[in-house]
Automatic annotation (TrEMBL):
Alphabetical UniProt keywords: Carbohydrate metabolism, Cytoplasm, Hydrolase, Magnesium, Metal-binding
Residue ranges annotated for the Fructose-1-6-bisphosphatase class 1 C-terminal domain, each copy included: 199-328
Record organism: Psychromonas arctica
Annotated metabolic or biological route of this protein: Carbohydrate biosynthesis; Calvin cycle
Binding annotation for Mg(2+) 1: E89, D112, L114
Binding site for substrate: D115, G116, S117, S118, N208, Y241, K271
Enzyme Commission number(s) of this protein: 3.1.3.11
Binding residues annotated for Mg(2+) 2, in chain numbering: D112, D115, E277
Enzyme class, UniProt record, top EC level: hydrolase
GO function term, MF aspect, one: fructose 1,6-bisphosphate 1-phosphatase activity
Domain Fructose-1-6-bisphosphatase class I N-terminal intervals: 2-194
Name of the featured protein: Fructose-1,6-bisphosphatase class 1
Quaternary context: Homotetramer.
CDD domains: FBPase (cd00354)
Length: 334
């Protein structure tokens, strides 16, 4: 039984130029995830469910736990001193850590501190998603917007915490995907899934079919393809949609499948955010043998222009994503 901390240190040589800072940074994420996990597990009795009545920059009502998680991850990252700034779904603009330690740090973190938080009140799995980059502005100066607007291929590390039937932390530093399960009696993450590999195909497609009428033609064609009865091709596939990106992705990572949140007429850029949802999930997808695209372009090659920009998103088992991409490309919008 090896702990997350031991594993990070053991694999530290995997991080180019690692001087222990990234190790410390991942340790801060580990600490904050335990604090958030504790609060989620008693949300129903801690008077911390429900909304704050306030909307974030996305125009979405912030849940009390959204803000709680945001505060705890920011505090842990600032306290550990490896980070010069953070961008978050819950913050309109990036947050600069201007202490002496902050400005002299070389990493920035982008995060969705509690993704799917509207599911908390109904006891459905939620998650934290994070993405780590080296800053491009000079160490010793305050962080700038360009430090956060980097393409996903520049990620140094990425991962998620899934607060589900068990709490797991899954991350990559570009050397495979590794999963750790929390022992709640000790509050310790133990290595449980080393070098996770996504099956090249699966039986599960995951999309909000309530939006069917608004989907592009190629997406509609792919959904019909999934539903056709072709026993030798394992079809019809099974539809599974939790409505929590981390939970839907995690299931497909283990069992095989495709997750899709395409553009719709009302949301031509889709719903999910490039920087702190799609890029980190894409890094994990690719590092475990999967694919992540907009339907026509590799997610991690998109050059960001705004902190909260959205992109159409599909990811998962390589054969399934390729089939969906072909349907979209063969059926351009009229
Ligand atoms: P819809 C949760 O709000 C989230 O950001 C993702 O976790 C999830 O995949 C998606 O939105 C669900 O969106 O429109 O299907 O409810």
């Amino acid at each position: 039984m090896i702990t997350l901390g031991e594993y990070i240190i053991e694999k530290q040589h995997d991080f180019p130029e690692a001087s222990g800072e990234l190790t410390g940074l991942l340790g801060a994420i580990r600490l904050a995830s335990k604090i958030v996990n504790r609060e989620i597990n008693k949300a129903g009795i801690a008077n911390i469910i429900g909304s704050t009545g306030v909307e974030n920059i996305q125009g979405e009502t912030q849940q009390k736990l959204d803000l709680y998680a945001n505060d705890k991850f920011k505090a842990a990252l600032e306290a550990r001193g490896e980070v010069c700034g953070v961008a978050s779904e819950e913050e309109d603009d990036f947050v600069s850590f201007d202490s002496a330690r902050g400005v002299n740090s070389k990493y920035v973190v982008l995060m969705d501190p509690l993704d799917g938080s509207s599911n908390i009140d109904v006891n459905v799995s939620v998650g934290t998603i994070f993405s780590i980059y080296r800053r491009i502005s000079p160490v010793g100066t305050p962080v700038i917007l360009e430090d956060f607007l980097q393409p996903g291929i520049k990620q140094v590390a990425a991962g998620y915490v899934i607060y589900g039937s068990s709490t797991m932390l899954v991350y990559t530093t570009g050397n495979g995907v590794h999963g750790f399960t929390c022992d709640p009696s000790l509050g310790v993450f133990y290595l449980s899934h080393e070098n996770m590999k996504q099956p090249t195909t699966g039986k599960c497609y995951s999309i909000n079919e309530g939006n069917y009428l608004k989907f592009p033609l190629g997406v509609k064609k792919y959904i019909k393809f999934c539903q056709e009865i072709v026993p030798e091709d394992n079809r019809p596939y099974t539809s599974r949609y939790i409505g929590s990106l981390v939970a839907d992705f995690h299931r497909n990572l283990l069992k095989g499948g495709i997750f899709m949140y395409p553009s719709t007429a009302q949301a031509p850029e889709g719903k999910l955010r490039l920087l702190y949802e799609c890029n980190p999930i894409a890094f994990l997808a690719e590092q475990s043998g999967g694919i992540a695209s907009t339907g026509s372009k590799r997610i991690m090659e998109i050059d960001p222009t705004e902190l909260h920009q959205r992109v159409p998103f599909m990811c998962g088992s390589a054969d399934m994503v390729k089939a969906a991409e072909k349907m979209i490309q063969d059926n351009p919008e009229g």
